[in-house]
Write a structure and sequence with these properties.
The chain has helices at 11-21, 55-67, 136-139, 155-165, 184-191, 287-307; strands spanning 2-7, 27-31, 43-44, 53-54, 71-75, 79-83, 93-97, 102-110, 114-116, 132-133, 147-151, 170-174, 196-199, 202-209, 214-221, 227-231, 234-237, 241-243, 273-275. With 311 residues, it is α/β, with parallel strands linked by helices. It binds flavin-adenine dinucleotide. Its cofactor is FAD. Residues 2-294 form the FAD/NAD(P)-binding domain.
Length: 311
Amino acid sequence: PYDFLVVGGGPAGAAAAIYAARKGIRTGLVAERFGGQVLDTVGIENFISVKATEGPKLVASLEAHVRDYEVDIITDQRAAKLTPKTQSRSGLVEVELASGATLKTKALLLATGARWREMQVPGEQEYRGRGVAYCPHCDGPLFKGKPVAVIGGGNSGVEAAIDLAGIVEHVTLLEFASSLKADEVLQRKLRSLPNVTIITDAQTTAVVGNGERVTALQYRDRQSGGEHQLALAGIFVQIGLVPNSEWLKGDLELSRFGEIVVGARGETSVPGVFAAGDVTNVPYKQIIIAMGSGANAALGAFDYLIRSSVE
Ligand code: FAD
């Protein structure tokens, strides 16, 4: 068995594996795809101390750093079932993989990340990273002085629109329903901004581009049925971040958004099970934050291991 097993090979899982391995404990890492969301990222300019890099490049150095330690890396495997030590015959935490194999560990870290909900309209995939964006903190500055749209009138959409209004030329916020869902205080702030237009009852129907980059967004007015086109340079999709925690439902405490609820040391509601990164209820989801929380949870798990004198 492992002393410390990490499920997830994104920045949170990689950082945790390195911190654990440096303690000299038997460490494993199992991931569907090493690198996680970072693999899908084009430019990264907010990973502090590295002025600018690209996702695949950062993933390659992450992997090289992990491989520098004695970490048992298992990729292309999906974790499908968690059994807490109180319920397992071995007295250890058990993780069953979709392939049928079972991994056993004294302490477990869940770092399965999250995925952005997509609009699922023509052009979205084609122009992902070429005008279609999901993270205003990451990509906002790329649209300085240009017109953009934000899709989604919940808290994250309205926060994104307020944030972007300070950087870009103009923001059009589109909401599918007939009113915004965001907190009143945010809506008030949004309406006070001179370079923001709000369109409700708008169903996005297509992302339009010139083969290189996004040039427009097409939407249908759900009241009149009319099709409209907005000329713009960027589209920020803010219709939800979905944590990869479906397989854990009922096993440990999740927030109403499905995020794993963690304490200050990354501990979950199940003894010996820790979590870090985008899959948790940490309020901000970023590479540097995921790495910090992975390191934090690995230290939390190490503390737990030296205190549980089972073996
Ligand atoms: P993830 O990166 O999501 O990694 C999750 C890992 O878990 C993956 O290895 C995955 O394969 C694995 N996994 C999931 N489920 C299972 C399972 N059941 N079994 C086994 N393995 C599983 N942040 C920034 O700071 N700067 C940026 O510029 C930036 N740009 C972004 C651009 C895009 C397009 C996207 C999508 C995100 C961007 N982010 C950016 C956010 C950043 O990528 C995330 O905050 C960060 O990757 C979260 O790390 P994580 O380790 O928690 O999860």
